[in-house]
Amino acid sequence: MSEFVVPTEQNISDKQKRFFGELKGLYGIVPNIFAAFASSENGLENYFNYLTQKSSLTDRERETVNLIVSQVNQCQYCLSFHSTIASRLGFTNEEILNIRANDIQFDRKLKAVAALAQNIAMTRGKIVGSILEDFYEAGYDQGHLVDVVLAVGNIWTLNLLYAITNVPIDWPKVYV
């Protein structure tokens, strides 16, 4: 198998350079996993639009989804990246580990989001037990449900790309 070559700013189109700039503004660097999308002329733009879409979920709720789904998929890149982002959003290291373990006692709503996202990822959408009822009882509605599904799809895309490309991890490494 040949090694996947991560595109750099020197070998991408001007259109893609705009998205590299946006990513630098968001993260301080162009993460390798996002740069990998620039291998396709439209891939980076399409994924960037997916990444920055409007959502009824808060940033903390989206990071909860990112962490729990990346744990299900055992994606070391995404766990490393999203642990860093979760820290920037105010999660403690203990809370991040609790989210990854789906053992959230510190926030009822995040517990419901994590349980739903984990269930979706593990069963391909077949809801088990009272997870959906618990989600609604925590204060969420059908719009939130759709946004959780979109968030699961978003992180699943990154998990898949990393599994296939094994791009270098450019964040402090955490382990599955």
Features:
mainly alpha; 176 residues; 63% helix; AhpD-like; 9 helices; Single alpha-helices involved in coiled-coils or other helix-helix interfaces
Describe this structure in words.
There is one protein chain. 63% of the residues lie in helices and 0% in strands. It is an all-alpha fold. It holds the Pfam family CMD. This is Carboxymuconolactone decarboxylase family protein. Residues 44-115 form the Carboxymuconolactone decarboxylase-like domain. InterPro entries: AhpD-like, AhpD_core, CMD-like.
Task: Summarize it.
This protein is mainly alpha-helical and 176 residues long. Helices cover 63% and strands 0% of the residues.
Gross CATH architecture of the largest domain: Up-down Bundle
Structural class: mainly alpha
Unreliable parts:
none
Summarize the amount of helix as a percent range: 55-70%
Number of helices: 9
The name of the CATH superfamily of the largest domain reads: AhpD-like
The overall pLDDT average reads 96
Number of E-type strands: 0
How are the secondary structure elements laid out?
Layout: H1 14-27, H2 32-37, H3 43-51, H4 59-72, H5 76-88, H6 93-100, H7 108-123, H8 131-137, H9 142-165
Helix pairs in contact: 4-5, 4-7, 4-9, 7-8, 7-9
